[in-house]
């Protein structure tokens, strides 16, 4: 029997509610498919920050290092500035473990409808491959002359050859296993130091994959295209910021953010990868038992897939689809009256 | 009789086609409303760049300075890198003339349908107020060790107190004349030097406008909201990059990019303002007479409004609406078979 050591970080708000459900579903999948998940729970969160002044202990990264995978709920709570909670937990984990791929598959699941008029499920399936360790999110920069009339702030976007090459290469490899199409998000007409560099590397790598159809679109036009012609997109690769924007948008045009999972993946498996829902901690509805656990359950399935338990991952995905298609158990965001726990239990039962 | 000196820069591709139509409509509006537009045409374009190595002459800015307004078509042509064509013309004009407001109203016009399911015209009307002179678009930055394994590029985003304050203040003033609601696009959770600064100034200015409802949303969530709940948005203020993305997206969920005008406005009137369609030069359909001139005609109406010819501006807007509502004259993108010229002429006739 395979054993996997999994770190669970439920975090704040509905992160706690949905992670509890995902664990139950994954445990049951393990029983049925012959593996065991050994969970260790960490209370790292804004609540912890409020008490201790730190989102995670100083040696947090070291504590996570031995795990085979990390399941993260969501962090964020009123009163703790977002840039504190995120730069104190989520972003350091992504970087320390070289989780340079943020993989965000979206598709229109059964029982849900798109906000786009007349779009069928099979036209709305794509995956956003987001660079996850550099780019527009950096700690370099600062503020000049605070409070003075001439005050200004500077933020450095940093793109390295290593960082850009590996994410683009990952996208091309992924496209080979899917539709054979890659679209790169750029803005080389406006942002003149980093984006032409991104395009250059994209062109170099595209030349190595003559069997993959490649194209690039400026982020503004690509956002428009995502609502006008999403059917023509499959693998979309973008920088940290562009991938972030496009994946929320892609989730919104398919089943909504309650349905979108995400993996922070270290493809080489040198370090643990981390899986989480795309949605945030939604403190306004936390603890009420009405949060939709589907995104977190699907994030769990991505984790199983990454651990090599492909059959179990497929079974979880299928169970989610069956429950949604039947439509009998649905949380309020899906137009139903069921609780978070009821929906989680229905997926477990469907396994 | 009021006379206005107007610089026309048709530019490349369909910019030429649609600017010709807009001129005719505006001239007729002048005849009917008692003013005259004195046009001077400039051939500044990628074609010019191909011949001379410059998009505009060295003293281009000086040549434009005496004008009361500028009507720009579009620039961009295959073979001329976008960052050359734009940083050689569009962006320097925006900056030299302190056109710090990029005003991008969108709404669902009669005779057009939204890509969003079940949305009515009156739910889809908003205006994106985009910062137009600083932010993520800057010339500061560069490349370290080209071609080496450790190669990287740096791009500086720069936000000044002056620049951020004036655009946010403009948005609040505008909201007072409209719905009384402003939403600020931010990303202070990921982008930690510039965006918390933006939020800080937004909060300071919001406090001066207790009568205006203010809120802020992260750009990723805001993109999602634009397709899920666009009805709850009216004035949306964002940085150069965020405003660019949001305005294309907003145009896409309303009538499409063929319908979206934009003004690069110097609100103090110290320098000429410039008006243009949001769409690009679309070289693939240039000169075929099938481009939709509506966005450029509406940009012309924005120019009339800015010049103080409010009745004429309203008349042009109404004429466009009437022609679209009748649906008899429509270019291919609107599902019709009419030419650019036929649609322009129909608007002129409707005046
Ligand atoms: C062409 C490009 C530089 C420009 C911009 O991003 O400003 C365009 O997208 C626009 O919106 O006017
Ligand atoms: C919370 C924020 C920093 C984060 C990001 O932008 O990376 C979130 O939006 C996400 O997509 O995981």
UniProtKB/TrEMBL annotation, chains A, B:
Its cofactor is Mn(2+); Mg(2+). It comes from the Bacteria. Gene3D superfamilies: Isopropylmalate Dehydrogenase (3.40.718.10). The keyword Oxidoreductase applies. Residues 5-347 form the Isopropylmalate dehydrogenase-like domain. It catalyses: (R)-malate + NAD(+) = pyruvate + CO2 + NADH. The keyword Chloroplast does not apply. Keywords: Manganese, Metal-binding, NAD, Oxidoreductase. Its EC number is 1.1.1.83. Belongs to the isocitrate and isopropylmalate dehydrogenases family. PANTHER family: D-MALATE DEHYDROGENASE [DECARBOXYLATING]. This is D-malate dehydrogenase (decarboxylating). It comes from Amycolatopsis deserti. The lineage of its organism: Bacteria, Bacillati, Actinomycetota, Actinomycetes, Pseudonocardiales.
